[in-house]
């Protein structure tokens, strides 16, 4: 796999009390360090974003005892961007492709200005179907019922696009539900849905359990990449072909799917000192922030942190990267 070296993530911040969602640096005085609260939007309970967020909070407490991190579980990337817009969180984990959509698309009719602290890791699009469903590719889903991610998730957006790329119409050719991961797993076990799509680390515990009963097949998705990149191309959308690793699931090894890069983002008005402190912690605490079950996730090295595509780095983050690495 490419760029596996370490997850460059964590939340160090420089001080403050959250007032209406704004943070201000509290660096004056006796070098007390950052103080206050940061609110981080993650993802569904038991999934990768949430596990990552918990580790961020732990490392933040170790690095900056005066600053706490409140981890908020959500449906995923789309909801997280809306929470930033509404100033209900200060930081969010989002898919690069969804962050790009926030510039103003059908998904976000009103642009949501974002800045990146860094490109922190890469997850996998995993389209799992029941082994007994007779489905071997996305085009074979015609006539089946599938869950394409929870409402407000990046997977929900990708799911509709994957169906279109295969020549299928959601709601006509394929019956589509949008279920949270745990609900989708229960529906798959009961046989009321034939498959589910999720973006996350590998292996995901919910899929690991389904792989035992009723048994899973993973669909190859990489063939859809040429139709998913948009006008900026696949690199701009943070998409690339990856291979599910051997041993992650019983029958998935070698299946070519899509890797999706993920960003830690904020609003442009995040305090410059806060953004700089976040960046330094991303670099220095990386190896302590790898969710234990995510053995297949591609962890990006320090050179990749600045590869945020069309989402500009926050000026405080950019200054910190330059001071650390020139």
Automatic annotation (TrEMBL):
It comes from the Bacteria. The keyword Transit peptide does not apply. Residues 1-24 form the signal peptide. The keyword Signal applies. Keywords: Signal. SUPFAM superfamilies: Periplasmic binding protein-like II. This is TAXI family TRAP transporter solute-binding subunit.
């Amino acid at each position: 796999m490419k760029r596996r070296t370490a997850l460059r993530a964590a939340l160090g911040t420089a001080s403050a009390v959250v007032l209406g969602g704004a943070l201000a640096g509290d660096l004056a005085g006796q070098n007390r360090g950052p103080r206050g609260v940061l609110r981080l939007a993650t993802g569904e309970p038991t999934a990768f974003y949430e596990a990552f967020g918990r580790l961020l909070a732990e490392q933040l407490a170790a690095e900056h005892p005066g600053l706490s991190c409140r981890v908020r579980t959500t449906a995923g990337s789309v909801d997280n961007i809306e929470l930033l817009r509404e100033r209900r969180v200060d930081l969010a984990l989002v898919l690069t492709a969804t962050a790009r959509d926030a510039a103003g698309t059908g998904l976000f009719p009103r642009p949501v200005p974002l800045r990146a602290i860094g490109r922190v890791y890469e997850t996998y699009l995993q389209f799992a179907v029941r082994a007994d469903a007779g489905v071997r590719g996305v085009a074979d889903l015609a006539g089946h019922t599938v869950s394409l991610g929870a409402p407000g998730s990046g997977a929900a957006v990708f799911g509709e696009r994957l169906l279109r790329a295969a020549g299928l119409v959601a709601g006509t050719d394929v019956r589509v539900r949008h279920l949270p991961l745990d609900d989708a797993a229960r529906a798959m076990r009961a046989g009321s849905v034939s498959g589910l799509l999720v973006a996350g680390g590998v292996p995901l515990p919910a899929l690991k359990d389904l792989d035992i009963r009723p048994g899973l097949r993973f669909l190859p998705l990489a063939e859809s990449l040429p139709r998913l990149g948009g006008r900026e191309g696949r690199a701009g959308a943070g998409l690339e072909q990856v291979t599910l690793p051997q041993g992650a699931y019983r029958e998935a090894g070698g299946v070519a799917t899509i890797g999706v890069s993920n960003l830690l983002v904020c609003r442009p008005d995040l305090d410059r000192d806060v953004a700089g402190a976040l960046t330094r912690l991303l670099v220095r605490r990386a190896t302590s922030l790898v969710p234990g079950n995510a053995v297949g996730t591609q962890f990006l090295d320090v050179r990749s942190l600045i590869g945020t595509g069309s989402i500009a780095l926050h000026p405080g983050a950019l200054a910190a990267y330059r001071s650390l690495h020139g």
